[in-house]
Design a protein that fits this description.
By secondary structure, the chain is α/β, with parallel strands linked by helices. Helices cover 43% and strands 20% of the residues.
């Protein structure tokens, strides 16, 4: 087991779920309530056999809504959760968002922790304190920034993760490499054959190092800019277009971010910010992890309409995140109508 920290938050890597209460003793004397993805609960039922105060949430992005927040709050009231209770979210990024948001508003705020069960949640969604829900087609428009007390990462949950969802996690990991680390990018290139499935890399030092490095990069941006006034914005690379695609098309978050990265790089190349060679190198690594890279079928005008509702837009302009080379990123303010 290894540990990372950000302020008062502790991240436990490569842990054993059965030892949760030993490793995180602060929850021993608290009334603990668990928000668990239904699919995770069924697939790993033996892990939860002794759990009480369980709230099950259907999987999928549709549950990231105010209506489900109200349902969870209502169940917490029924279960007599109070201001000293502790909430733990067990699942992917949707569960992390819901748990963090509910914890932040329930009785004006109670403590919470995350047990992420997908690669995307382990390396990105659970990290950084952003917790929010969607409204209609607008992603994460209602939310808060509030850190969990802990993030507890047990790789055994990945044994039941469908390979498509496994590969989705690499969109965010590749994003981290693109904006900050040429070394991580090379590592991903050199190990694509073993990383393309969890079965081929589980229990390997390479995989543990990958998770450690990806989290470390995100923490570096978050620590220096908690409220996203400066360099934390770089973590939005690929997300302006990615969120628009995810809102409009039936694609996963990872697939959408992959396409969002390709869109951003094409615009950066058109503006002479990114070379064609570097643009193709990023496209090739996304493709090597079986992520979509063909943006020709997407209606650019409809995406621009959605971008006007993006949280990063102001009047008729938006801060776009580009890379000028692999491992180096920048902010470019541009009129939305001039994007394409």
């Amino acid at each position: 087991m290894r540990q990372l920290s950000c302020d008062k938050e502790i991240i436990y890597l490569n842990t054993d779920f059965s030892k949760l209460h030993q490793i995180v003793p602060e929850i021993l004397e608290r009334d603990v309530f668990y928000i668990i993805d239904e699919s995770v609960y069924l697939l790993h039922s033996s892990k939860f056999s002794l759990f009480k105060n369980v709230i099950l949430v259907p999987p999928g992005e549709k549950t990231k809504s105010l209506s489900f927040v109200i349902k969870i709050v209502d169940q917490l009231l029924t279960l007599n959760a109070n201001r000293k209770s502790f909430l733990i979210g067990i699942g992917g990024g949707v569960i992390c968002d819901l748990t963090g948001f509910v914890s932040s508003i329930y009785m004006r705020g109670i403590d919470f922790g995350f047990i992420p069960t997908t690669l995307l949640a382990m390396t990105d969604a659970s990290i950084g304190g952003k917790n929010g829900v969607n409204l209609n087609t607008i992603k994460n428009i209602i939310g808060v920034i509030n850190d969990p007390k802990f993030i507890f990462i047990d790789y055994s949950f990945l044994n039941t993760l469908p390979n498509k969802d496994w590969l989705n996690g690499f969109a965010e990991i590749i994003k981290h490499a693109c904006i900050s680390s040429n070394n991580l990018f090379d590592f991903l290139e050199n190990n694509a054959n073993i990383f393309r499935s969890y079965d081929s890399c589980k229990n390997s030092l390479e995989f543990d190092q990958l998770v450690f490095d990806s989290i470390s990069i995100k923490l570096d941006f978050v620590k220096s800019d908690k409220t996203e006034l400066g360099r934390r914005k770089f973590l939005n690379f690929g997300h302006t277009f990615g969120h628009a695609i995810e809102s409009k098309y039936s694609l996963t978050h990872g697939e959408s971010i992959s396409l969002g990265i390709v869109f951003a790089n094409h615009i950066a190349n058109k503006l002479n910010i990114l070379s064609y060679k570097e643009m193709e190198k990023v496209k090739n690594i996304l493709s090597s992890y079986l992520l979509p890279v063909d943006i020709s079928a997407f209606n650019k005008e409809s995406l621009v309409d959605l971008i006007y509702n993006d949280k990063k837009s102001f009047n008729d302009k938006i801060d776009l995140i580009f890379i000028n080379k692999i491992g180096s990123s920048l902010i470019h303010n541009i009129k939305i109508k001039d994007i394409f």
